[in-house]
Amino acid sequence: MATLYCECKHSIWSDLWWTEQGAELIFLDNLPSSASYGKQVTRCPGCGRHLTLEILKSENYQPYGRSR
Ligand SMILES: [Zn+2]
User: Fold this and answer.
1) What distance in angstroms lies between residue 19's CA and the mean position of ligand 1's atoms?
2) CA 18 to centroid of ligand 1, rounded, Å
3) Could you tell me if 13 and 5 are in contact, meaning their C-beta atoms sit under 8 angstroms apart?
4) How far is the CA of 7 from the centre of ligand 1 (A)?
5) What's the pLDDT tens digit per position in 11-68?
6) Which DSSP string corresponds to 4-43?
7) Rounded CA Rg of the chain
8) Who has greater pLDDT, 10 or 60?
């Protein structure tokens, strides 16, 4: 769905899994050199932080209200 980056710059792939309960947002390790590459993770393999959309920034992340 989208490539995101943790605050420690670890690359995380986000995707939606559809279940009977609805859509569930999951995160996959997207760093090829990482031991858990391609596997589902709930914590950042790099820094151990619990993964949420709030701490991940997309490749095209544009902070609002920031002057140049
Ligand atoms: Zn991290």
Assistant:
1) 27
2) 26
3) no
4) 6
5) 999 998 899 999 988 999 999 999 999 999 999 999 999 998 877 765 555 555 544 4
6) EE-TT--EEEEEEEEETTEEEEEEEE--TTSTTTTSEESB
7) 13
8) 10
